[in-house]
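Task: sequence design from structure.
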């Protein structure tokens, strides 16, 4: 008798479970179907390759440019870090050229576009920049500002305490147009 009651009780539980399963199965089937239809409609979005923009480390530098009153003023700008100091310096000098994007901000550059950098050498914290002969073609009124701008821009580097400038391998001792003598090593005491 007890065994019959246990079997009957189990049968009744199974019967209610079976009714519950019959009720739940269509709901599960509908959810799966709707989900599959939704996924099929968005398949293109799901299969996209995501491009992750990994930005390079930014470097911040100051450029000394002329304002409307002909004073040198520091402008800070950011650019992607360069691996080599020489590449960093080349880039910073390029921002002093006439075609610099900084000129769109209302500032004047000090370096003509046709001036080329022929060499960069750092020895005992003194940076020598060797420019092409076009460096000598600047207006006499801009020469001192050019030297001051280069000096202040390039001595911001921790590795650089002074600057010498050469043109076609010959050290610059006087300004080409005005004939004004310049120090052997340019540093922040100039200007």
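Answer:
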């Amino acid at each position: 008798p007890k065994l019959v009651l246990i079997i009957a009780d189990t049968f009744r539980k199974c019967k209610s479970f079976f009714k519950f399963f019959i009720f739940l199965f269509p709901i599960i089937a509908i959810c799966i179907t709707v989900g599959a239809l939704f996924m099929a409609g968005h398949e293109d979005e799901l299969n996209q390759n995501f491009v992750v923009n990994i930005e390079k480390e930014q470097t911040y530098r100051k450029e000394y440019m002329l304002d409307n009153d002909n004073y040198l003023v520091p402008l800070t700008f950011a650019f992607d870090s360069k691996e080599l100091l020489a590449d960093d310096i080349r880039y910073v000098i390029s921002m002093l050229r006439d075609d610099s994007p900084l000129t769109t901000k209302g500032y004047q550059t000090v370096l003509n576009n046709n001036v080329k950098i022929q060499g960069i050498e750092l020895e005992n914290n003194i940076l020598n920049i060797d420019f092409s002969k076009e460096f000598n073609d600047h207006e006499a009124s801009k020469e001192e500002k050019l030297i001051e701008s280069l000096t202040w821009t390039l001595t911001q580097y921790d590795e650089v305490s002074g600057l010498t400038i050469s043109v076609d391998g010959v050290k610059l001792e006087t300004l080409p147009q005005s004939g004004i003598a310049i120090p052997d090593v340019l540093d922040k005491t100039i200007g």
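The chain has a mean pLDDT of 80.
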